[in-house]
Design goal:
The chain has 3 helices and 8 strands. The protein has about 130 residues and is of the alpha+beta class.
Length: about 130
Amino acid sequence: MNFGVTVDFEKADPTGRYVRGWASVVSKGGVPVEDHQGDIIEMDELRKAAHQFIVDARVAKAMHDGGQVGQVVESVIIDDAFAKATGMSDDRRGWWVGMEITDPAVQEKVRKGTFRAFSIGGRGRRKKV
């Protein structure tokens, strides 16, 4: 099964060179969040996928296509233990990333608001809950 998640940038600098925000939110207020296909990603599965992405790829692509347009420069799994340790008040849990955008055409699209969100995709196996 293929899946996709899109989450708006929390912050994009005025140059369009750096964007930050949630790559994936798996729960809010302790309630699981469904993705666009109605699936729920468990924290342990997200953690494994995020770690594998950082080790194997770390690259940003424009709409999952073509060559590299940037790279991940920040990656944090925000689970209950992290939130408690940092005194975080946000009740979302998931994967927070920061990306440096190196492609001038993509930077322009970020500046203009054409690109306003992260989109992650992957493969998984569905199981009944």
